[in-house]
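@channel sequence for tomorrow's demo:
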Amino acid sequence: MPKIYLVRHGKAAAGWDADLDPGLDDLGRQQAQKAAKTLAPLGPLELISSPLTRTRETAIPLVELWNQPPRIETRVAEIPSPTENLSERSDWLRGVMADGWAHLDQDLLSWRQGVIDAILGMKEDSIVFSHFIAINVIVGEAIGDDRVVNFLPDNASITIIETNETGIQLLEKGIEAGTKVN
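structure tokens (generated this afternoon):
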């Protein structure tokens, strides 16, 4: 039964309505350092990251401690937006976040299933650097909650799950906070 540590990226330098792929700001880099300090005694474990800049930058302190690069996994990336227009993306995301998966289109349902399949395919203890909605997908699957947003993982929070033949089990939610998706 692999134990998987889901790390939401640190605070980004810009939000969804300002940049398609921002890196971390100063606070985000501090949060990444703190997460690495918490996780360091567990490994080295396999490191997996979304390809987006803010997740790869969140992984850097642990990559440096363990001297191993992360495996990039596109299936744990950010929810795909139907547009690159920044203001339209933000409005779209707000609408999606207020909904349940049963009401969303097939492209989003396929993305959601890809996130779940990526996690279920992990056969060893791992640390996954990912995003707010992707982590909500995994937690929602574990607890049987169809809402797109079922909890508010703070930046650089660590959510712990296990997988086995019956699916995903939630062991511990990460620290929650009022959040601006970034």
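heads up for whoever presents: The longest helix spans residues 106-120.
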